[in-house]
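FORM 7B: Structural annotation worksheet

SECTION A. Query
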Amino acid sequence: MSFEIGFTAENNEDSLQEEVYTASKQTEAPRKSVVQVYFEGRNTTLTYYNDRFDLHCGDTVFVDGKLEGIRGRIIKVNYNFKIKLSDYKRVIAVADTTVSGQFFNAGSQFLTFDRNAIPGSKVITWFRAPVKEEDEFVSSSDDTSFLLEKPESMDISPVIADRGEEYFIMGKVRYISIDGTKGYAIVEGGDGYEVEFDYRNGEISRLVCSCFCSYNCKHEFAAMLQLKETLEFIDKHYRDEYERTGYFAAINRMTLLRFAFDGKETGSFML
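SECTION B. Predicted structure
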């Protein structure tokens, strides 16, 4: 069963993108505002000044100051104010939570075979603040590989594998995709961690994670268990669609609803 999902939060259509975040430069100056931001992870609400974005209730944002890097959600926007700027920190980024495309039911996930529907470069903005120059990532991998059919054959300790299985069962793999031979996943732990890998003829290689571990980690193992389950589901129900495009993306149902729909004051969707 498939259905169309289209959601737009009626943000300024003239806004551009800087990497995958809403950019600070716009063709028209955004309306200045003072906004209240709720930080679910800290169960606290703080007030920030904004002069870079056209913000709406429900927007997912990142700020500077002591909660830099912590995801927040706009719960109130005030345009009538006079403040001392030095007393306020600012909103520095807005996640792009617009989604549009054809999706298919897949258990606890929604599946799409459309590369433009929900790319990983968009979804990661829902979990992580923009990368600063000093936070630049460097990636490398060896030539080890293993069969996806036997993820337990990874070079991983039993304790870490057990934690990874817990993450998989808890639905911590929020997003996973394969484009040709390139795989990508987002696993939510203390942060949104990016898992990258190659997938060819049932074999996994070049597996890396953006977490601090210098060895195969629970995020990687959880992603492999999710990939195995998702590919088995696709093979059973949507083999033709996958073979036609050579691409799929699967997103956790609650993740999609949480970011693309919950808390939005305006917008529309189609089923």
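SECTION C. Observations
The chain has a mean pLDDT of 86. The two ends are 11 Å apart (CA to CA).

SECTION D. Sign-off
Analyst initials: ____
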